[in-house]
Design goal:
2 copies of one chain form a homodimer. Chain A is an alpha/beta fold and about 350 residues long. The first copy, chain A, has helices at about 20-25, 45-65, 85-90, 105-120, 135-140, 180, 215-235, 250-265, 275-280, 295-310, 330-335; strands at about 5, 10-20, 35, 75-80, 100, 125-135, 160, 160-170, 195-200, 245-250, 275, 290-295, 315-325, 340-350.
């Protein structure tokens, strides 16, 4: 059994998001807390800009929850940079414990799942889960110097410049969508009125179909995503149409189509209720590129756009599956293929 | 409150360890499951050797527990390489879910703490926590090409070539050291007769005292180690002498002395019951170097030497604090200092 269940219903009481200019030209533009016009965020390096964005997302998630830093019991975070320096240096700025994770672009779901698991068990009451990425820091670490102006093949994705954080809390009680209302918290932040709950999580297996094209992450991550989704449905006894939305991050347009094929072959039709964060974050023209990627992709889309729909009740049952490609420049250089991983988190208005 | 308590007593029912020739010349030599005479482990690259060692440690921990791969619910692992490829590629070889973590050299404690937390909450019954490192892969990633034959300053440590894994299980019942005996498992492995329990864990904060010398990790990690230790003692109401041994990993000889000073200043004397994994793994001559480091350092020492003493009852109450230096070549190159982190796990024969 890969799925764990959270009967205490840890709730997402606030989120914080920030994104770059290219990202904010798309659907998330009007939902993020801050749109950057300058992707250096006033810093001297892209790595420092990435770290500052992540710090912003953490602080904003706390603020939007009507809480303070003193209320936070733990930060769970990771990012794409070597030795997750964005997360580590973000954690340095705060006076709460830190749990560093690495799941590549699956980090948002991984950190939310651990946070919910810890809160559900009663270890902590308030945990912030956050991640982010930056196009320019990722590009020069994983691919080529920016100055080279390298062309990209059509199957490539574009690393999202952005960060997102979720403040996850135990609000008491067991059931009913009005728990948050019965537990008024200072400030009467509307976010509490219908704080979506994390009801279960499915930790994924590493799956490798032998993809070696580092420009085709979508294809590399699809098999693990399909595996986690099918396992989740089987273990929970839910049908795919139980969910208003199955939102994957960041398969891209091509990856999203492959996922639909892979699940359809297994008798599961997600054509009508699936979107991919990478596919929707930009206005994708497929022969140009496949959309967004990076840990910040699903972090921004989930914590801004999707969370807005959950809070307003436009969506009530969402399965969030963040996907990660587990490679490094060294592993690819040594001829290894690209395994994928995907973790799923069910977010519901219950 | 940084400390979480595990009343269900998740138990370490088996461990697996492997180490290189330089390591096995020291105290761990007669306790590890496998001593390598060739540090390439028959592989074509050091990265692949590191991955193979980690796989060995995971498989051996499962075998030494008298279990099979089918019994494992989750693998929690991480390592020092960019994008934790050793852990990810190890996970690829098994058919159980994977949770990737990054805590630099604190990974053994971090992964054990999460494993114990998940088991204590009833999410899973059997989790393997493991990590490792390799001198040659770390050296060329973090420092200089091996071919350069670079000299090392006296405050430097030596990255351990080795890996260790712990199989952590819920064996039922609540108290009493004979629980394992009352739950006989196939094979009558003596390891069950007195399986040490993980009774609590203290997740650490990131602490930065402004150390910028990348050759002096011990000094960089000491403040966080002292903070976690003092917090643990304060929150649990235990005195330092409650523990038969407070074993830190991997401060090295110099770091170990600084830790004693830092805690002594706060009125906590650990002179008589503290050792450091980095200090004891080699026969340290301090003007040559300060001992071992790397995620594999504490993983090997804890899961071989220390675990043997716990199983035979020579030690009954051990506080294991693994320490991590949160830097990358990029962060150091951009002028950042080196923050440290330390997570503590209490392992007791109860």
């Amino acid at each position: 059994m890969q799925t764990v269940f959270f009967d205490k219903k840890p709730r997402i009481v606030g989120t914080g998001t920030i994104a770059g200019p290219k990202e904010c030209a798309g659907v998330v533009g009007k939902y993020v807390d801050k749109s950057l016009t300058d992707d250096t965020f006033g810093e001297s390096t892209y790595e420092k800009a990435e770290c500052k964005m992540l710090s912003y997302a953490v602080s904003k998630a706390i603020e939007n929850s009507g809480r303070t830093e003193k209320d936070v019991d733990l930060l769970i975070s990771g990012d794409l940079l070597n030795q997750i320096i964005s997360a580590s240096f973000t954690a340095r700025d705060y006076d709460f414990p830190f749990l560093g994770v690495y799941g590549a672009c699956s980090t948002m779901a991984e950190s939310m799942a651990i946070a919910a698991a810890f809160i559900n068990a009663g270890y902590y009451k308030n945990i912030v889960a956050a991640t982010g990425s930056h196009f320019s820091s990722a590009e020069r670490q994983y691919r080529y110097p920016l100055e080279l102006g390298n062309t990209r093949p059509p199957q490539a994705q574009w690393t999202v410049t952005g960060a997102g954080g979720a403040f996850i809390s135990y609000l008491g009680g067991e059931n009913g969508k009005n728990i948050a209302q019965k537990n008024p918290i200072k400030g009467e932040n509307p976010a509490y009125r219908l704080a979506p709950a994390i009801t279960m999580a499915t930790f994924g297996k590493v799956v490798d179909f032998g993809i070696t094209d580092v420009n085709n992450m979508g294809a590399a991550m699809c098999p693990s995503c399909a595996h986690t989704l099918l396992t989740h449905l089987e273990e929970t006894g839910r049908n795919a149409d139980y969910y208003d939305l199955i939102v994957t991050g960041d398969l891209g347009a091509l990856g999203s189509r492959i996922l639909k094929d892979l699940t359809w072959e297994k008798g599961v039709d997600i054509a009508d209720n699936h979107v991919d964060c990478g596919e929707i974050i930009y206005n994708v023209i497929e022969d140009e590129f496949q959309g967004g990627s990076g840990a910040g992709c699903s972090a921004v889309v989930l914590n801004s756009y999707i969370m807005d729909k959950l809070k307003t009740g436009a969506l009530n049952k969402v399965l969030f599956i963040a996907t990660g490609a587990l490679l490094s420049t060294v592993s690819s250089g040594q001829g290894e293929s690209i395994p994928g991983i995907a973790h799923a988190v069910a977010i519901e208005n219950v």
